[in-house]
Amino acid sequence: MPRCPERTIFGAVLGQALVVVSDAHLGVAPPTIEEALLSFLEAVPDLGDCLLINGDLFDFWVSYARVIPRRGFHVAAALARLGRRVPIVMVGGNHDRWGGDFWTREVGVRFEPRRATFEVGRRRVAAIHGDGLTEPGFRAALLHRAINHPITAAVYRAIHPEIGLRVVDALSPRLGDHTMDARKLAAAAARQRQWAAALLEREADLGLVVMSHTHQAAAVDVAPGRQYLNPGAWFDGCRYAVATDEGAVLHHFSPAAPPPPVPVAPR
């Protein structure tokens, strides 16, 4: 039986066509990746009527009481503008789980550090980034627990931001497997699909499980009307997905191309 983060349910239906994006890893990705993301955020209302950011939008993010990291300013401002037009949910990933109340209070985004559960059309959706759930090996489990421990975040916030962010820049290549080969990636993606299928079996009210983290795009029918979705990594070809209560479709975003039409069944 799968381990599962604490459930958080938003009472209202979020929308009818959910745009899903994750794993941009802004800060280490090339500047063109952020430029494309800003264009994408402007286009979201033409792609659907609500947005899910499913973790690792930034390669590192921590919210301070009085400081906004300069690196995330443009994206935070774009999300604040977009949030006035469509509902936005953000789930924390292993690189940006320490959002605190910044995203909700200052930006207007519903931020959940581990899991968000909501409805899109007639389907209940569980959104989970996916780190710490399927990684094999003691080292990966230990690293996950250490990074996500509240004491770790408290100690880090006590360091001057200029020093702390420089430390993260220096340690970033060592904090994750940036050289995973195709065989390991395929195995990680398979374990994630199995985990999602087990969650769908365990929670009969769910119609869609959205996970990220492995950077491997997938839209899999687990049972009639029930799916597992991974939108893939934004930094890998500007990948995203659109999900309705009829299904989920994988896409690549191109600023120069018109957005694809989103089929939504009449109510």
Walk me through what this model shows:
- The structure is a single chain.
- The protein is α/β, with parallel strands linked by helices and 267 residues long.
- It has one domain (9-252): Metallo-dependent phosphatases (Purple Acid Phosphatase, chain A, domain 2).
- It contains 7 helices and 12 strands.
- The chain has a 6-stranded mixed beta sheet with strand order 1-6-7-8-10-9, with helices on one face. A 6-stranded mixed beta sheet has the order 5-4-3-2-11-12, covered by helices on one side.
- The relative contact order is 0.18.
- The model has no long low-confidence stretch (mean pLDDT 87).
Count up the domains: 1
Widest sheet: strand ordering: 1-6-7-8-10-9
Provide the gyration radius in Å: 18 Å
User: Secondary-structure element sequence?
Assistant: EEHEHEHEEEHHHHEEEEE
What structural class results from the helix and strand content? alpha/beta
Strand content: 15-25%
Helix count, per DSSP? 7
Separation of the first and last Cα atoms: 36 Å
Here the CATH topology equals Purple Acid Phosphatase, chain A, domain 2
Specify the biggest β-sheet. 6 strands, mixed
User: What CATH architecture would you give?
Assistant: 4-Layer Sandwich
Instruction: State the shape.
Output: globular
Summarize the amount of helix as a percent range.
25-40%
